[in-house]
Amino acid sequence: MKFHFWYVLLCGLAVGVFLPAYDSAVGQEASSSEFLNLLDWGVGRPVEKKSAAKIKNPIMEGGIELPGWMEPQPKSYIRWERVDTDNWLDFKAWKRESALKDQNPHWRTNRQDLALQESIGRVLHCIGYCHIYRGEGFANAQFRTRFQEGDEIVTLKNSYMWLVLLDGTMVRLSPETSVTFKEINLSVKEIFYHLRLNAGQMIWLSRKLGAPPIKGDRETDPLFYPLPLYSANKVVDEIPLKETQLFDSLRTPSPAFAQAVRLRDLMAKNSAYMKGKKTKTFLVMPNGTVSGESLSGEFVVLLGDKSMMKIYPDQLHHDEATGPLAEIPAPTFYYRGHENTTTETLEKGKWYVIDPKGRALNDLPDEEQKTMGLGEFFVSNIPTLFLAREMIMQQYTKPFFSLPPTLDLYGGWQYRMWNRPSVKEDELKRRESFLIEYTRREETTGLLVAEKFRIKMQEKGESFNAMSFGPNFYELAIDSYMANGEYLEHNAQDREELNSTKNPFWKYVKNKP
């Protein structure tokens, strides 16, 4: 009887409160958000005053007029599987919750911010087996797979991966690599990435506004070709062979040259809506953190051992014909240690090695650098991959950044707006300051726990095999490059000089990409 009493009372309240609101909401004079203000649908947008103008349904020819409150709602944030029936129907609990909501006018927006899991980017291509872990399970990554905040991306043995982030930053993952994308924060002028390289090798390439130089040299990362984005692949035109014009037919532009020309034109279009936006990267490793603007470099984390890194020089992918280099501040390195606030400014074009405890940063010995140059070589000339990036940006990034930022969300794309005009202090700067302190303490604690665990294993006579850098990170990629037209220069001083080294025609045939 008690349950029926409260049920009848709630039904009476619904009839007495909701129906008048419904009648006014569908009327021409009512505000379009009145109905949603009363009914807590947990919609995926903040509730603000909206126009009462009618909208048309594009599905039906000619459209039908609908009240504004009936516009499609993208997402409900009510976790129905966790709703307790008794608490949901408890009148006193509802009354307390209503009082709290009255004290916090922006409760709906705040709840939405906490529930947001913003998209960070898309998968461009995966060779082998690549997993995206989210929650308790994982999914196999493939072309266009979306990944968001909190996702961990793992490549298995002999598996490689290219990712494209929201702002055009490209990420190349080698085999047996794990990276977790912690968060993406957006403001009108800045894009902030926070990620952790758990283990393996990663190349991070921030997008530049200018296109790379146009070269006819063959591409350096053919392992990923042909791409699943077919329109980005090389277009090879068949040239009729004529004995009288054989030399001229060979001098036609190479496919790589044609790709570079396509890339230049498309980058010019995309850069129009990316001007004025800078990208800040906060990259966490177990024994060190790197933070910098327009970051481009190679990072290697050997789990249980040292880490290595190189910040690429600004000349990489820069076309001197477009003008002088834009000055990019050098990134900053943060050591480990609960009270160690020492920082280091990293020199570009130089390999560093971080000790396992994260307390020392030194130059990498010359002997070890001999095997560390392949990463930069693989990304030195990749116009087709860059072209695919620009095409993905045309589809996913351009519609987003072309819209003006509104209210607390960036457009209608469910990204929280940082550094809103009403906020006087720099929120992103405060967030970075917090992460610097928090990650240093958290990672230092993790290193100490791992060291104690390693000592206990040794006391028990068990071995601990740390990761080591070797051919497993690049073997398949270099084999693919060698199998796609690479020729070897042999020492022929003691041999007869051949026509291929004297005649211009045969010399061109030999060196043609």
Tally the beta strands. Answer: 19
Shape: globular
Helix proportion range: 25-40%
Q: Helix tally?
A: 15
Gyration radius, to the nearest Å? Answer: 29 Å
Task: Identify low-pLDDT runs.
Answer: 1-10, 13-72, 486-495
The main sheet comes to: 17 strands, mixed
Report the β-strand fraction as a percent range: 15-25%
Plain-language structure description:
This protein is an alpha+beta fold. Helix content is 31%, strand content 20%. The protein has a 17-stranded mixed beta sheet that branches. Strands 1-2 form a two-stranded antiparallel ribbon. Helix 7 (255-270) runs parallel beside helix 10 (383-396).
Compact overview of the structure:
This protein is of the alpha+beta class and about 525 residues long. The protein has helices at about 1-25, 35-40, 85-90, 90-105, 105-115, 245-250, 255-270, 365-370, 375-380, 385-395, 400, 425-460, 475-480, 500, 505-510; strands at about 55, 65, 120-125, 130-135, 135-140, 145-150, 150-155, 160-165, 170-175, 175-185, 190-205, 280-285, 290-295, 295-300, 305-310, 330-335, 345, 350-355, 360-365.
